[in-house]
What we know:
It is a single chain. The longest helix has 14 residues, at 3-16. Mean pLDDT is 84; it is low at 5-18. This protein has helices at residues 3-16, 23-28, 33-37, 42-46, 57-64, 67-73. With 117 residues, it is mostly helical. The chain starts with a helix and ends in a 44-residue tail after the last helix.
Amino acid sequence: MGKKIFIALSLLAALGAGISLPHSEARAASIKGKHGSEGLGCADCHKTDKPTAAAGVEACLECHGGYDQMAARTKAMHNNPHDSHLGRMGCLKCHRVHTPSEYLCLECHSDFEFKDK
Ligand code: HEC
Ligand code: HEC
Ligand code: HEC
Ligand code: HEC
């Protein structure tokens, strides 16, 4: 709680003040989680300092390795999201960088407690 409401209120305040935020810039204005706190720059993922479209999954693989590496990293989870009965999927099927992730598994397993860092 709290954070979402705060963001919503900030946006309302910005709009109320007559500042218009195009949709894509509003989303890109923040880099959530560790990517933000580790100080990643736009070009680390987008290959340009002035991105206008989504980044590709290649960037994720460059830094995090491929699926084998991710499956090994999270192998202690009984419901390992990187090695499940769904097989292997592109990172962006679940993870987001500027908005909350949408963990596909939760569509069926509402009891799994997956959370963004
Ligand atoms: C860790 C990788 C990463 C970094 C760093 C990053 N982006 Fe992104 N960006 C993405 C991905 C992945 C998407 C696709 C949507 C999402 O995941 O939120 C995206 C989407 C976007 C979009 C399209 C948004 C839309 O509405 O479709 C813009 C514009 C953008 N980023 C700008 C930026 C800017 C500006 C920065 C630097 C301040 C930045 N990004 C940093 C990965 C990154
Ligand atoms: C320039 C290197 C770099 C790129 C590119 C990158 N990451 Fe990361 N990522 C990191 C670092 C550093 C951390 C923090 C240490 C860690 O958890 O490995 C991190 C952490 C994460 C985390 C866990 C922490 C959190 O905040 O959620 C996820 C999930 C993640 N990255 C997914 C992605 C995805 C998906 C992409 C592609 C859009 C991506 N990363 C691109 C470097 C990168
Ligand atoms: C089917 C959904 C899904 C896909 C696809 C996926 N992930 Fe994840 N990922 C998750 C979930 C769920 C977590 C755990 C979140 C939590 O800690 O509750 C996670 C955690 C992570 C973490 C943090 C691990 C840690 O030690 O805390 C990183 C880094 C990461 N993913 C990177 C990736 C990369 C890179 C890819 C693509 C090769 C990828 N993920 C594909 C769902 C997915
Ligand atoms: C389309 C629905 C669906 C999706 C999406 C889905 N599952 Fe499942 N999963 C099932 C069904 C059905 C079963 C078998 C019945 C059961 O045991 O709950 C199952 C069983 C499991 C089990 C063994 C039983 C348990 O609850 O421990 C695990 C672990 C699991 N899934 C993990 C995942 C992970 C991780 C993801 C995301 C990468 C995922 N599933 C996505 C439907 C789904």
